[in-house]
Amino acid sequence: MDAPPSRVYRALLDPEAVAAWRVPDGMTCRVHAFEARVGGAFRVSLTYDAPDAAGKSAGRTDTYHGTFVELVENEKVVERLRFESDDPQVAAPMTMTTTLTAAGGGTDVVLVHEGVPDAVPAADNEAGTRMALDRLAALVVRM
């Protein structure tokens, strides 16, 4: 990304920034709660724009909640989360680790998902993550 790690790190922990970037195309994001500290809780909903789409939580919405497990300033954010769903195949706990490394005048960002439920197609998770990272890259250039 064409921004220093400090700027990218801020965008990972700012609820308004998260609402702007952590959403795939064809969805909108609402951040309900966001305590950016180790042990702090967050809750986020992603709602499909298409009226006939089915969400993992209710209606057209995928809501997830979790906590911040590790925060290393300008280097790493580790989150433990799960979808809010009555379906245990969807509501399994996941870990998302975002690592930032200075590269030239910018930042290499690596986002690793662990424990993604089998009910969430890997291709869909990959595509959504790439879209979100593209939004993050565009956002941090403007910050």
UniProtKB/TrEMBL annotation:
Matching InterPro entries: ASHA1/2-like_C, START-like_dom_sf
Domain Activator of Hsp90 ATPase homologue 1/2-like C-terminal, chain residue ranges per copy: 2-140
Protein's name according to its UniProt entry: Uncharacterized conserved protein YndB, AHSA1/START domain
Family membership noted in the UniProt record: Belongs to the AHA1 family.
SUPFAM superfamilies xrefs: Bet v1-like (SSF55961)
Any Pfam family the entry gives: AHSA1
Domain of life: Bacteria
